[in-house]
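Hey, resending since the last one bounced:
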Amino acid sequence: MQDQPPRAQDDFAVAHREWLTERVAHYLGRPVDDTVSLAQEGLDSVAGLSLYGDIEEEFGSLIEPEDIWAYPTLRQLADFLALRDVNRGGSKVRAAFVFTGQGSQHPGMTSGLYLNSTGYRAFLDEADAAITPWTKQSVVKMILADDAGIHRTAMTQPALFAVEYALARTLEEAGVHPVAVLGHGIGEFAAATVAGALTLADAAKLVSMRGAFMQYLPPGGGMMATCVTPYEAAELVAAEPAVGISAINAAKAVVLSGDKAALERIEARLEERGVPCRHLAVSHAFHSPLMAPVVAKFEAVVRRMPGGAARVPFYSTVYGRLATEPLHAPYWTEQITAPVRFADAARSLLAQQTPTHVVEIGPQAVLTPYLRRMGGGRRGPVCLPVCQGPASDAVDLAGVISALDAGPLAAALSGA
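The structure tokens again:
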């Protein structure tokens, strides 16, 4: 590799420092100071070996295990890592995966990919085989039939999980491995599976049960997108106990969820102030107080699942931050009624991971516009959806993989 100019070398060292700081913080479960030694920070030998494994996986054979303890501070270790890493350039792709939530589904979603991409077909069949024992319906057959039943919550949630799992695994097979993951609502189950916190079998059972339990809730719930701040939304729902904040997608993009009559009263108040609202086409009031009857049943199922800690940084939209805690039963139970703190989680991911690319994993682009604005437009990471919408096919997928500097086309261009 040619010598890099001093500024490029500095940026390269900073990137390694940020990566190493994040990994150490992951193991310690708290922020760390890069001017303090790893021993003083409390990193033990077991975590040190795990950190060495992370370095091997991410960068290849650059150091020996004892090198982790040989440098006085985390910063000096990171600088040494950057110095040894002569095979990685400053343009290396660091992709974060963001998994879309409910509402992105549509009849026939990803059917073009399934018919023309052998890799995607294999992964969707794998997910379908894990789901079918619970739903007694094939996700694949429903997709290929353009069946509008995909909008029934009992099938929407497992179908979205299956599609997102298959899309992510297809990217990974092509060489695109996420530096972090984040999921919106039901998308958290695919994110957790890709991050290694849930097995495919456990996740398939959970999303199938979750969707079925919600399907049979009483009607009368709705969801409404509003152009207000979270603080304004909190004031609005304070007077309406049957309504809650369902999602915070941006600084002035909040979704309210709950009793339809109560939502209409809130809408009337906002119309007087000239604030636009839009009712969403949903079957139930997700992430609202009306979900409460599901919680006990779901908790009874999920508490038997082992769950676990994510092996890839997992940005929680329940907490709105990096989740260092294991994703056990209490997390998935709380997630049912908790607001989706997408904006907080996404901003944390962008700031802490500094990805070069953010890939929206789902059947159509929903979150990409928010991510672009949060990332600063042209100054931030490249934000692209793996599927643009119903017409997306294997050619489009190949273009995304190429844009991520992966797959056979990228290898050919690099002379591999």
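The beta strands are 95-99, 180-183, 221-226, 243-250, 253-259, 277-279, 314-316, 321-322, 357-361, 382-385.

Sorry for the duplicate.
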